[in-house]
Each structure stands twice: as structure tokens, then as C-alpha cells.
């Protein structure tokens, strides 16, 4: 693998994978998993590696056991980004008597690996989800956007011009055909706003026509309430001024 492929592989693992130690009762051995609904992207990962086994339960798994994990652990060690992944990886590296690792900067190829694992697109917007927020905050620092919370998970989102600039970079590096096709549909050609602008204007005009009487009645009532409130305020002001004048008459020594 070259550096870009290693970065892709590592961040795909951070997005939708697992590294752990399996205890069979008398010794432990490392395991590495890659998960995804579609098999094609896992076929690409398998082409970069040796010894992977495919399983299909609810989703596809590409699994590596024992000595087949060592090359992968060394790759991950050189490109791990998030703190939680580094901590989990170091437990396995220590058991295997391999040097510990530290956090590394996020690269574009690494980001695409993460996006192929946990990303999607919709209406000229980019998204990626994760239970741990840290990696999403790192993506925000590098590529912009924001992070929102949804129950027990977080979502990175990017829209507007920045999303349109980043989408071709993802498309050029993606190895997940279904997500790439969705990306093309959402970003190539006119934007969603451009395609539906006239339709939205027509619906807005129709709505305004259908609810014109309601709007007039609302504004009439709103204006009447405002007028009543202003009259009350003026009356209160006049009463206060009257009290001040009467007080001054009774107390000429007071300068107002």
C-alpha cells in the first residue's frame, strides 16, 4: 500500500471497524473487522490486504485474525487520528509487543475513507455520523461545517459552496460505488435549489393566495392590539405627568 491507501484504510477502520483482542480461554489473539452494508468497498479493502475473510450477517464483514492483523495494526499505528481509536489500538499493540502510537493529522484521503464508511449526501449536503464526537470535530476543523447531536450519536454536516468544493474531491477518491453514485446525483449538474426554485415560488404564491383573508384578519387584529397598547402607554404617560405637575405645585421647593 502507498501512503494514501494506508490513510484511507485507517480512517475507514475508525469510521466503521473494530480492533480487539479475542480470548479463547488459554491465550489472546488480535482481530480486525471492517463493516459495511455493501460489499464492493470491502472488496477494495481486501485487494489492499492479505488474509481477510468475508462474512455476511445483517451486514458484510471483512475479518482478519491473529498474524494477519499485524500488517494492519502497523498501518493503523502510522495514521490513527482520534484519541479514542489510539487508546483502543494501543491496548492491542502493547499486547503484541508493538510500539505504541499517537494521534496523527487528518488528511483528505483519510477523510474519504471515513466518509466511505460512515458518510452520505443529500440535496447538495454532506453528512457523516459517529457515536464519538471527537473525530467529527476534527473534520470540522479541517473541512468546515458543524456537528449536531441526535440521541446517542453525532452528525457532521457541510452545505453550500464548501460542500460543492469538497464533493468532487471525495468522488475522485471514493471506493464505495453506491455512495459515489448518490454523490453524483446530489452534486453534479444544477443544485437542488436551482432545479426546484420556480416550483417553490409557485407553491408560495398559491399558499399566499389561499390564505390572503387569514393574513388580512391577522394583521388587522395585530394592528388593533398595537394601537390599544400604544393608547394605554400614552394614557399612563399623561397620568404620570399630571401627578408630577400636582406634586410640584404642592412642593415648589423641588426642582424638576
User: Which topology of one domain does CATH recognise?
Assistant: Endonuclease I-creI
Kindly provide the name of the CATH class of one domain: Alpha Beta
Unreliable stretches (pLDDT < 50, length at least 5) are none
> What is the terminal separation in angstroms?
88 Å
Q: Write the H/E string, N to C.
A: HEEHEEHHHEEHEEHHHH
Kindly name the structural category: alpha+beta
| The CATH homology group name of one domain | Homing endonucleases
Number of helices: 10
Q: Order of strands side by side in the largest beta sheet?
A: 1-2-4-3
The coarse overall form would be elongated
Largest sheet: 4 strands, antiparallel
| Proper CATH architecture of one domain | Roll
Proportion in β-strands:
15-25%
Spatial extent as radius of gyration: 31 Å
Share of helix, binned: 55-70%
* Mean pLDDT rating: 91
Number of E-type strands: 8
Amino acid at each position: 500500500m502507498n501512503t494514501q491507501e494506508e490513510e484511507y484504510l485507517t480512517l475507514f477502520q475508525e469510521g466503521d471497524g473494530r480492533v480487539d483482542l479475542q480470548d479463547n480461554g488459554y491465550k489472546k489473539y488480535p482481530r480486525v473487522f471492517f463493516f459495511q452494508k455493501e460489499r464492493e468497498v470491502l472488496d477494495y479493502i481486501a485487494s489492499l490486504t492479505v488474509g481477510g475473510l468475508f462474512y455476511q450477517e445483517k451486514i458484510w464483514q471483512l475479518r482478519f485474525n491473529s498474524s494477519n492483523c499485524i500488517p494492519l495494526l502497523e498501518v493503523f499505528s502510522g495514521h490513527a487520528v482520534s484519541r479514542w481509536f489510539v487508546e483502543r489500538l494501543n491496548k492491542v499493540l502493547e499486547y503484541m509487543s508493538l510500539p505504541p502510537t499517537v494521534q496523527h493529522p487528518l488528511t483528505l484521503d483519510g477523510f474519504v475513507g471515513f466518509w466511505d464508511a460512515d458518510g452520505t449526501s443529500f440535496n447538495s449536503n454532506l453528512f457523516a455520523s459517529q457515536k464519538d464526537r471527537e473525530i467529527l470535530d476534527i473534520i470540522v476543523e479541517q473541512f468546515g461545517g458543524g456537528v449536531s447531536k441526535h440521541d446517542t450519536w453525532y452528525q457532521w454536516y457541510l452545505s453550500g459552496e464548501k460542500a460543492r468544493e469538497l464533493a468532487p474531491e471525495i468522488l475522485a477518491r471514493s471506493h464505495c460505488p453506491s455512495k459515489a453514485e448518490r454523490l453524483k446525483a446530489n452534486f453534479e449538474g444544477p443544485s437542488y435549489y436551482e432545479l426546484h426554485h420556480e416550483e417553490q415560488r409557485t407553491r408560495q404564491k398559491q399558499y399566499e393566495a389561499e390564505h390572503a383573508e387569514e393574513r388580512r384578519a391577522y394583521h388587522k387584529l395585530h394592528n388593533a392590539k398595537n394601537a390599544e397598547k400604544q393608547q394605554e402607554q400614552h394614557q399612563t404617560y399623561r397620568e404620570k405627568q399630571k401627578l408630577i405637575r400636582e406634586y410640584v405645585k404642592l412642593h415648589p421647593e423641588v426642582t424638576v
